[in-house]
Design brief:
It is built from five helices and twelve strands. By secondary structure, it is of the alpha/beta class. The radius of gyration is 16 Å and the shape is globular.
C-alpha cells in the first residue's frame, strides 16, 4: 500500500483555517509566483515560485486518493464533483449526501459512514501504491491517534493567525513524536516540510 500523509498549509502558530473555515493568508503562496500550473477546476490556475512549483508537481502527481471529512466536503461543495488536483476523494461522514451524489453521478467520490479506519482502507484500495493524502483537522488527528499516518506534510506560511482550527487539534493521549524533516523546500512566503511519524 502507498504512504499515508496528512497535509495542509499551516500558520506559524499551528492553524489551518479560521474558526469559520476561511483561510486568511494561508493560500497566498499559491498565487505569488511566475510558474503557471493549471488545475482540474475551471477558472483556477496556480502561480507558484519555481521551488514551490517543483515541490507541488512532485507531491500532487504522487497522490492516488484523498481522504477528507464532511466539514471540508460541505465547505467546498465537494469541489463541484471534481477535486482541484483531480484525484478520487473518500469522505468520512455520518450521513451520505444523497442529493449531492444524485446531482454528480460521475464524481469519483466515495462516502464512508463506518469511520476513519475504513475510509483510509478504502482510499488505499483506490490508490494502490500511490500516496493517500489526508486533509488536516479532525480526520488527521484521528489517523494520527490510530497509527495510520506515515508522514506529515506542512506548507508552513509565515503568518500568525492567533486563533482558528489547528492542524491536528487536541490529542486524546500522549504526545506523538515526528522525525527530522526529510524534505525542506523554501518557496516564496512558504516552506514545504515533510516529517516522518515515529512509531
Amino acid at each position: 500500500m502507498g504512504t499515508v500523509i496528512a497535509s495542509a498549509s499551516m500558520s506559524l502558530d499551528g492553524y489551518i483555517a479560521k474558526h469559520d473555515n476561511t483561510i486568511g493568508r494561508l493560500f497566498d503562496w499559491l498565487q505569488n509566483g511566475e510558474v503557471e500550473i493549471p488545475t482540474a477546476s475551471p477558472g483556477i490556475t496556480l502561480h507558484l515560485s519555481p521551488p514551490s512549483a517543483e515541490y507541488w508537481r512532485r507531491w500532487t502527481t504522487g497522490i492516488g486518493a484523498l481522504v477528507c471529512g464532511r466539514t471540508l466536503f460541505d465547505v467546498t461543495d465537494g469541489w463541484g464533483g471534481r477535486h482541484t488536483i483531480d484525484v478520487p476523494v473518500v469522505v468520512v461522514t455520518h450521513d451520505v449526501p444523497t442529493e449531492w451524489v444524485d446531482a454528480h453521478p460521475d464524481a469519483p467520490f466515495s462516502f464512508v459512514t463506518s469511520g476513519v479506519e475504513d475510509a483510509v482502507a478504502r482510499a488505499q484500495m483506490i490508490a494502490g501504491e500511490r500516496i493517500v493524502a489526508i486533509t488536516a483537522g479532525t480526520i488527521a488527528r484521528q489517523c494520527l491517534e490510530l497509527g495510520l499516518l506515515d508522514e506529515v506534510a506542512v506548507d508552513l506560511v509565515p503568518v500568525v493567525m492567533g486563533t482558528g482550527r489547528p492542524f491536528f487539534g487536541e490529542l486524546g493521549g500522549d504526545d506523538v513524536p515526528l522525525g527530522d524533516p526529510t524534505v525542506c523546500v523554501q518557496g516564496d512566503r512558504v516552506t514545504h516540510l515533510l516529517f516522518p511519524v515515529v512509531r
